[in-house]
């Protein structure tokens, strides 16, 4: 519906920067939801936002969608300032997930036609756009059915299709594959990759680190409203060391006791209470023996031990641990 319009005033950075914030802050009464957040995403890339509940992800997405004004700093999306040019921003972004709503009384196709009409398309082009999207998303066979009869995977595809009716330059994907089976997840990932290859810029919020690893060109980790880490998946992984050992201690001991024993041996273990494991960054293979010795010394048996390259999960756990322990210096990873 709209191509990229060159903004009249000077952009904060180069033309192909599609999302950019400069020291964005947001306060809700006494709550500081965002504190000096700086992020950047180039055209045709995926920026993933990671963070625990309450980290500030939704607040940031709302600011970038020009649905909520920042308290301080500035943000530009597709070259437009979210505070001074909110209408231009809204015309260029597509929202999915908790933001988009499909009418349960209408069929999948009727929903897409309605959205196109609401965006100003005439009847014929609205139908043409709906059919184009139904084909792109493999929804032709379900076009006349109501979304209430769709599977989870089909609903996500319709939701994403709905966000693309206006041909946005930037889409915000909010947990796009939560609750989907593996093949539906893969299908959705392939669709997103196709859109990105055509130049769409994606801001992805997800709780699945494998999703961020697969899709994201860069990752920003938010904690309590601040950016605590940022970079490519490879850069983030490099910050947590080359290799790790993951130990599952006997449940009678548990990860905290195992972590304490390993700390006494001079290591820096990260307990993962949810999975009942402890992750230890190691320099060399011989360090595995030191892990086993330290546990044995404390009388703790390991029921499972695995050796691996760092994953984004390791990065996330290490960052979470940094956040919960008092530290005299700033986090090791700069945005
Ligand atoms: N309208 C509001 N009024 C008051 N506080 C708010 C409001 N919106 C968000 N907050 C607070 O701001 C902080 C950030 O919330 P936000 O919803 O952005 O986090 P989130 O990372 O998206 O979390 P979740 O994953 O649970 O959605 C939280 O402490 C939240 O309670």
Characterize the structure shown:
This protein has 335 residues and is α/β, with parallel strands linked by helices. The chain has 2 domains: 17-231, Rossmann fold (3-Layer(aba) Sandwich), CATH 3.40.50.300; 240-318, Alpha-Beta Plaits (2-Layer Sandwich), CATH 3.30.70. The protein has 11 helices and 15 strands. The chain is elongated. GO terms for molecular function: ATP binding; ATP hydrolysis activity. It holds the Pfam family ABC_tran.
Q: What is the CATH fold-level name of the largest domain?
A: Rossmann fold
What is the typical, i.e. mean, pLDDT? 86
Strand order of the largest sheet: 7-8-9-4-10-11
Structural class: alpha/beta
Largest sheet, strands/sense/barrel: 6 strands, mixed
Whole-angstrom Rg: 23 Å
CATH architecture of the largest domain: 3-Layer(aba) Sandwich
* Unreliable stretches: 1-11, 327-335
Instruction: Enumerate the distinct ligands.
Output: adenosine-5'-triphosphate
> What count of helical segments does DSSP give?
11
CA(first)-CA(last) distance? 35 Å
- Count of the domains: 2
Give the % helix. Answer: 25-40%
Total beta strands: 15
Provide a brief overview of the structure.
The chain is an alpha/beta fold and 335 residues long.
